[in-house]
Structure formats: C-alpha cells, structure tokens
Design brief:
single chain; 242 residues; mainly alpha; Serine Threonine Protein Phosphatase 5, Tetratricopeptide repeat; disordered C terminus; Ankyrin_rpt-contain_sf; Ankyrin_rpt; ANK repeat; Ankyrin repeat domain-containing protein 29 isoform X5; repeat
Length: 242
C-alpha cells in the first residue's frame, strides 16, 4: 500500500497506524488537531492502513475514536477488504462487530470474500460467510470466489464455498470454468474435489488461444478419474490430461 504525501500530522497518523504504534496514534488523535478519518490523495484512511498491516489495537483505537469503518478508497477498497486480503481474521471480526459491510466492491468488482479466497485465507473466508458475504458475487470479468480459489489451488476454501452453495460450474465471462482453470494451473487436488462435487469435465472454453496450450498443461496432472466418454474430445480439460 502506498500513500500520497499529505499534511505532516496526517502522515504521522498513517505511520503510527502502519507500524502499530498505539501510543503515538493515541497522542495524535487526542490532540484534536487531526481528523480520525483523514485521507491521503488516494482516499486511504488510517483504519485501512491498520487493517492492512494487521495491528488490532490500532484498528480498535481508531474505531473507538469514531473512524468510519465503511469508507472506500479511490479503488473501492475498504478496511474490511484490506484485512481480508491480508488474512487478519481478528481484525475482520472486529470490523464486523462495529458494523462493517460485505457489500462494497472495488473497481474491478472485487469483494472482501473474493480477496480472501484468492489469497487463501480460510479462517477469514469462514468469518465472512458467517457474516453475510455473498458466495455468488462475481468480478467484472465474471470470476466467482470459487473460480479464484480454484485458480490458486486453495482446496480448503473450495470446500467451504461449495458447502455454502457456490456453483461448481459457474464460468467466467470468457467461458472458462473453475475445473478448466484448476486443470490448466496443475492443481490436481482441486480438480478431484470439483469432480466429486459435480463439475462438468466436458466444459468447453471459448478462447482458442488458451485451448491450444491447455493440453500441454493438463498432461502434467496425474488424475485418476473414470472416463465415460470418448478421449477424442479436444475441448475437455480432463480428456487432455490422459
């Protein structure tokens, strides 16, 4: 996270929040000379900084001093998004305790849940789902949280999402299904889990450029699955794996 230069006091608040220097943060906030929701040129607040950096006590102090939990940065990110992205589950819980919303999106359609799934933070995913995060939300390109977890190989999170009702065959806008992406990335355990949960192994992909290179990637997988249709189908990711 980077910041544009602002007033010296605001910069000091950002520094204290980033370093977790609670004493300095309290001193600055109690001086009455700096707004708890002061922002840099990108719309970054001290609470976002503390949440990103994982400093629970600093985040709590900012909240108790009246920080607006749901302010959005220029990119659309919130304190909850940053805490989720970085895997700081206790801060995620703290933010929910004081009214954080899961509804806010970044400019590319990202949510706190999609960030946690992409970066593999299963405890955060559990907390988000318990607090109303929508498992069906999609990025602007159509990628779901399940798609992102499949792409990155996060098996535990995939199980969590599927148990909460995620659609196993929901493709991205370009037609790429989670199973295809998992196979392309070489995540054999993910492929097995998706198959067991009903993924369509004959799901096609619309992009010819990726289809040309996929067979080489699939060949690295060692997936033991029953083949019930002809291996001549070049559009199936699993057919290409055998």
């Amino acid at each position: 996270m980077s910041f544009k230069k602002e007033t010296p006091l605001a910069n000091a608040v950002f520094w204290a929040a980033r370093k977790g220097n609670l004493a300095l943060l309290q001193l600055l906030l109690n001086s009455g000379r700096v707004d708890v929701d002061c922002k840099d040129g990108y719309g970054t607040t001290a609470l976002m900084v503390a949440s990103y950096s994982g400093h629970y006590d600093s985040a709590r102090e900012l909240i108790m001093q009246g920080a607006d939990i749901n302010l959005q940065r220029e990119t659309g990110s919130t304190a909850l998004f940053f805490a989720s992205q970085q895997g700081h589950n206790e801060i995620v819980k703290l933010l929910f305790e004081f009214g954080a919303s899961t509804e806010f999106r970044t400019k590319d359609g990202g949510t706190a849940l999609s960030a946690a799934c992409q970066y593999g933070h299963s405890k955060v995913v559990e907390t988000l789902l318990k607090n109303g995060a929508n498992v069906h939300d999609q990025l602007n390109d159509g990628a779901t949280a399940l798609f992102l977890a499949s792409q990155e190989g996060h098996v535990t999170i995939i199980r969590q999402l599927l148990s909460t009702g995620a659609k196993v065959n929901q493709p991205r806008e370009d037609g790429t299904a989670p199973l295809w992406m998992a196979a392309q990335m070489g995540h054999s355990e993910v492929v097995k889990v998706l198959l067991l949960r009903g993924a369509d192994r004959d799901a096609d992909r619309k992009s010819n450029s990726s289809a040309r290179t996929a067979p080489q990637l699939f060949s690295r997988l060692h997936i033991k699955a029953t083949v019930t249709s002809s291996r001549s189908s070049s559009s199936s990711p699993l057919h290409s794996a055998f």
